[in-house]
Predict the structure.
Amino acid sequence: MRLRFTKMHGAGNDFVVIDATQQPFRLSPEQMRRLGDRRFGVGCDQILVIEPATSADADFRYRIFNNTGDEVEHCGNGARCFVRFVVDAGLTAKRDIQVDTMNRRLRLTLQDDGRVTVNMGAPVFEPAALPFDPQGLTPRLENGFALWPLDELQGVELGLVSMGNPHAVQRVADVEAAPVLTQGPLIEGHARFPRRVNAGFMQILARDRIALRVYERDAGETLACGTGACAAVVAGIRAGWLDAAVEVQTRGGLLKIEWAGGDAPVLMTGPATKVFDGEITL
Ligand SMILES: N[C@@H](CCC[C@H](N)C(=O)O)C(=O)O
């Protein structure tokens, strides 16, 4: 089958975007793996699928697949690229767009400078929301926020945050020296996370600036992770390390994250860039 797609990235987190309002979307997981493969296909961290809205007050439905073909709940950098795509393709004349994902309604705004702000919804901290099995473990409380140990991983303390998808974030002294590629997969696949988890490593540079690397579920380390940036900042705010507006330095670019606490939504602002249009036979 021939498939038209657009290659995009948000701070280096890269995507194959499929417009399923104009062509049917029926790729098997095997075809998605091929599409996502950097040697045998196009290559990307995630595949984003744009579909017509299924509820009356939403503008679109937006689905996310990791490059393994597994459908996941949320992708922050992808949400910004989604907006850039639907506006540039003329699928909407709006600049404020509402979209349904698997488990959240997102509100997105294309700014005059081309960046996109996403209302990511409120974070959830209960272990069951990830899910995480806390049985037999005692967390250390930092400013009242639970930091969880993990069996076999000496010295690791994880702040647990669901942004609709699961995140486990730890504070490290030097993010460039952090064991992202060795410890990341151990956390991602740890038995206490039955649906696996995205593992974040954050270095606090100031109360309004962090450096972050994320070992993503399925995709491995990416150049940026939008939901990971939200999770790291809200964990840092809850632990008392960070202020309410924080610049997040990733290997692929800068994201701005704001959170007023409690049930307030997390706001993420950052770039969304088109790379090229293409067509592939799968
Ligand atoms: N890159 C993303 C997150 C994509 C999904 C993640 N790998 C998961 O499995 O939850 C982002 O920008 O948020």
